[in-house]
Specification:
This protein is about 45% helix and about 15% strand. The chain is an alpha+beta fold. A hairpin with a 1-residue loop joins strand 11 (about 505-515) and strand 12 (about 515-520). The chain is globular, with a radius of gyration of 27 Å. The chain binds a DNA duplex (12 and 16 nucleotides) through helix 13, helix 19 and helix 22.
Length: about 600
DNA sequence: GCTACGAGCGCC
DNA sequence: AAAGGGCGCTCGTAGC
């Protein structure tokens, strides 16, 4: 018994892994995980189970379910898939109804938390330096279990399946204690959200799809080479830059266009000398936009379940700041997935995609957006209590900034700016742009575009230079923070740089090196890094933890959340629900961020907006 | 035929 | 010395 007390893992946890049939057409990319397991071709031909006293690999039907102890829990690598397969097998009676585990745990999410590598292969390589052979997976494309048996590959396949579960169990046992409880809860919440999905207004979606299709057809007509074939009989792609180049040179242009990007000043300059090409470029841009939108809308359309809901994709810890990201993990090609975090914010070509996301009957949406969460976190991180105190008194943050740094001493800046006051408006916009855009070491040139985007502020380069310089001069705590982070990283050259966050976790920058500038490894990429960027990462990470803790609070209060988009939470609650409850749960300052004034904008929504 | 990568564009 | 950041998806092209 004394040994058991020393276990730093739960012996009731067993690792599971299914092997399921797939081919080039029938896969997650084309059907989504839910559609895949409900497809007639669905065939979970193998399951491996590994844990205390059990190592099984074989058909699910013959698995030793009776040997699993009461209250056993399942560890899987990618719960977004495995947790759909399991109940589907129960429905199909290849797994007994009463065999369900008491809980689930996802080692993919654990790996994301630990090392930023999501696939089992990459996680094991990163954490143990061992290469897991994934050859069998490719081999099995388009092959059934009996194909493998006939080909004499059964044993190899079994070994491969067993290996995955062994590694999964090892990840769980070795690292589970490094995964904080709250993060495990967030992993669970994320799964619940994706499985729950969102109700879709199908009529609206259908008519919108028709509109976009029409616009797409119209755009095709403006692309001269559309539908043509090259010498080899291959279709010339509508967005082919080579075709565009050829067309331009054949039609009196001396040079090819520098890009086809909408709004690119270089393109604009080129077009002013080649006006006759303008309609072609425009058609390419319209085709590109409508095509992408159409794909997205049709994917949603195709994935609507019989109950009228669409199960979306959202990844726990998709970003290295551990923010959620869109997409899914199954398969290497990140295609055919719908990212709910970048849905167009307004109508495009007669389709308002967000309007198609509606509450289930008897429910309403609550959209809860944190106001200026990042600047507030940054002020807290650098210890700018003065500004935070002004905000705590009820001052709008941009106004607080203006009073502190821009010499504003008039009345309510926001109210005056809203009324179009000629003196207040530029100051308000300048403050907004500076607060949102200048905190991360942004230079003057970049600040012009940031200011435009964040505060609709149009400025010249000298003005941008002045605002940025002013920001740095009046915010020495922030510039010092940049330097502190950068110096910390410089002291870590040759090793990993760990930044301890105020919450329960750290950020890790692996393998810091100097190649001209500072570089390090983030996920599987080598990136350039400097103080301003690190500051941005840390601020994002802290804001993420704030929203993460809020999500857990909402969940514990029984409030159904659908998804999060960085600083906003979409809740689905009964029609008579009191929105104040959501607000109160969200603005509660975390213990580890004492004194931070949080604010959320809450709105009832008849659709997602 | 498959993979990798950049361009372009959508979001916060 | 100076440098906003974080994502995902589609398409086209290049390279193996």
């Amino acid at each position: 018994m004394s040994n058991l007390n020393k276990l730093n893992y739960d012996p009731l946890v067993y690792a599971l892994d299914f092997e399921t049939y797939y081919d080039s057409e029938y896969g997650i990319s084309n059907y989504g995980a839910w559609g895949y397991v409900h497809h007639p071709k669905f065939d979970a031909y193998l399951i491996s189970i590994v844990g205390d006293g059990i190592e099984y690999v074989g058909p699910p039907k013959e698995a030793p379910w009776h040997l699993l102890p009461a209250g056993w829990k399942a560890a899987v690598h990618n719960q977004g898939f495995e947790r759909l397969v399991f109940p589907r097998c129960q429905e199909l009676r290849t797994i007994p109804k009463d065999a369900a585990p008491a809980g689930w745990l996802c080692t993919l999410d654990l790996s994301a938390y630990l090392c930023r590598h999501r696939s089992l292969h990459d996680a094991v390589l990163s954490l143990y330096g061992v290469e897991v052979d994934k050859g069998m997976r490719d081999y099995m494309r388009g092959k059934t279990w009996s194909d493998a048996v006939t080909a004499g590959k059964a044993e190899e396949l079994k070994k491969y399946a067993l290996d995955d579960s062994r590694w999964c169990l090892k990840l769980y046992r070795d690292f589970n204690t490094s995964w904080p409880q709250i993060e495990q809860e967030l992993s669970e919440i994320t799964f619940q959200e994706t499985a729950r999905g969102v109700a879709i207004n199908e009529k609206l979606l259908d008519s919108g799809i028709q509109n976009v299709q029409n616009a797409n057809d119209e755009a095709k007509k403006g692309i001269p080479w559309f539908g043509e074939e090259d010498e080899k009989g291959k279709e010339v792609k509508p967005l082919s830059v080579l075709a565009l180049k050829k067309f331009c040179l054949e039609n009196g242009c001396e040079t090819k266009p520098p890009s086809t990007e909408d709004g690119d000043p270089l393109l604009e300059a080129w077009l002013s000398n080649n006006e006759h090409i303008r309609p072609v470029i425009k058609a390419m841009q319209t085709y590109r936009s409508t095509n992408a939108l159409l794909k997205k809308a049709c994917t949603i359309r195709a994935r609507i379940r019989p109950d009228g809901t669409f199960p979306h994709d959202l990844k726990y810890g998709g970003a290295h700041t551990l923010r959620w990201s869109g997409g899914w993990d199954e398969g290497r090609a990140e295609s055919g997935s719908v990212n709910v975090q970048n849905l167009p914010g307004s109508e495009m070509y007669g389709l308002h995609l967000r309007k198609c996301f509606v509450p289930r009957p008897g429910f309403k949406f609550i959209g809860a957006d944190y106001s200026q969460i990042e600047p507030r976190c940054l002020w807290w991180l650098v210890g700018d209590w003065e500004t935070l105190a002004l905000i705590k008194q009820g001052l709008n943050p941009y106004e607080a900034y203006s009073r502190k740094n821009l010499g504003w001493d008039g009345g309510s800046l926001k109210a005056l700016a809203k009324a179009g006051d000629a003196k207040a408006l530029p100051i308000y916009k300048t403050a907004k742009a500076a607060v949102l855009g200048a905190g991360y070491g942004c230079g003057a040139e970049k600040f012009i575009t940031v200011a435009k985007q964040m505060a609709d502020l149009n400025i010249t380069l000298p003005e941008a230079e002045r605002i940025v310089a002013e920001f740095r001069r009046t915010n020495p705590k922030i510039t010092k923070f940049w330097k502190t982070l950068e110096n910390g990283m410089r002291r870590s050259i040759g090793e990993d740089y760990l930044i301890e966050l105020p919450s329960w976790r750290s950020m890790r920058y692996r393998n810091v090196k100097v190649f001209g500038g500072l570089t390090c490894q983030v996920g599987d990429k080598i990136v350039k890094t400097w103080g301003g960027k690190l500051c941005e990462n840390v601020t994002q990470a802290v804001a993420r933890d704030v929203i993460g803790e809020a999500l857990v609070r909402l969940e514990k209060a029984g409030i159904r959340t659908l998804f999060t988009v960085h600083d906003e939470v979409i809740c689905e609650v009964p029609l008579d629900f009191d929105n104040k409850i959501v607000e109160q749960l969200m603005i509660e300052a975390p213990d580890w961020l004492p004194g931070i004034p949080l604010e959320v904008e809450i709105k009832d929504m008849e659709y997602y907006k």
